[in-house]
């Protein structure tokens, strides 16, 4: 990000730009006016708007940008910023509390707990070592995709690929040069073009970076009313392309000036200010999710030089509105989502603390095994008296029955809406793994004080413990009759997949 603010002062930018095609046209028209009294210069914005209307592909956008160059705000002269805040005696702090990672402002007040540490990067950070960044304690990154219209960040493609590879959650931002709604709409189209080009699936929002910019021959807006139209146009363009998680980023003096609008503030969730304390109520703008970029001079292992660092409240992970970095087994939940094993509920939740139903368990087991080709025969369809083609996950229930992974109840029912008990879960996992040879040792038998040879599926429970798939509760118990929570099931399935190297009973 290229914050044009030191405290509440906007330092001047030292940008120049080659003469654009529009400027050349303006020069031509001025010459024509000297020859005839009826020639009238056409405003540069009108010419650009006309040109922008014909952009329809990546190459079109890039070609337009070459003829209408916009300065790269990520150049060292801009990013180093001519005026930085003086060192503060009171500093921010990251600590561990009973709620997890916590961020304190310079006065020792809690800004977010649990908190997530987020960096934002662009070409100015060069080729980042994302493995080291991932191991450094950074929770997520916001990647610059480009700036203005037709300008792609040089490192964007690599950063996307690397974040996907190391499993770093990411968001996107575009630095805006919009002077009106037409240009903003094209910035939205350009953002969507870049996201689709690299199959970007951001977990954090797409941020519209609104700052006071400098572009030769153009004047940045100064009216909140104009900026309302700009924000609306950008958001609408992305919505048309299927992107709805969009938000505004800016700094405090700009939010209190040209962006001083309730409409804009309600769409702002990330603010920059380099003070010991944040002097803007970002939580009022976005209560459930917000972030504070508190420094532009952070140091992170894997990045050469300074980097912007922000503290955020927990963000939703993997597309689930109720999964954050504070959710137990959140990485395993992400593994389930990535492999298509669990897609959550229609309202966008995962409901990790809810008990898993037996019919949902059948679907998860089938998908974990790789969704093998299977067509139920007559015997499979009649195995359980309470299962019919109208039953959710009918095919998967028939499959677990046909493979003797689930045998149902003694009365011939399956009871798909009943919760899965932990001891039954042990049997399901053991069987789908192929019922491997296993003889419990004395240590295995003594592992859980509440599991004995009379416990249903005791052998399978001890196998789970031996393989590390389930280690029980902190008090040493297994609690075989307790229902399996969905977030725990995510961990069990991920560990099982690792244990058997992805080879299951089919």
Give the structure's gist in a few sentences:
With 506 residues, the protein is of the alpha/beta class. The chain has helices spanning 21-35, 44-52, 58-67, 76-79, 130-135, 156-166, 181-197, 224-240, 252-255, 262-265, 282-285, 330-338, 358-368, 378-382, 394-402, 422-432, 442-445, 458-467, 486-499; strands at residues 93-97, 100-104, 110-112, 116-121, 140-147, 151-152, 170-175, 206-209, 246-251, 268-272, 291-298, 307-312.
What would you call the shape? elongated
Please estimate the helix content: 25-40%
Largest sheet: 8 strands, mixed, barrel
Low-pLDDT regions:
4-42, 75-86
Structural class: alpha/beta
CATH superfamily of the largest domain: Glycosidases
Mean pLDDT: 87
CATH topology of the largest domain: TIM Barrel
End-to-end distance: 50 Å
CATH class of the largest domain: Alpha Beta
CATH architectural category of the largest domain: Alpha-Beta Barrel
Number of domains: 2
Roughly how many Å is the radius of gyration? 28 Å
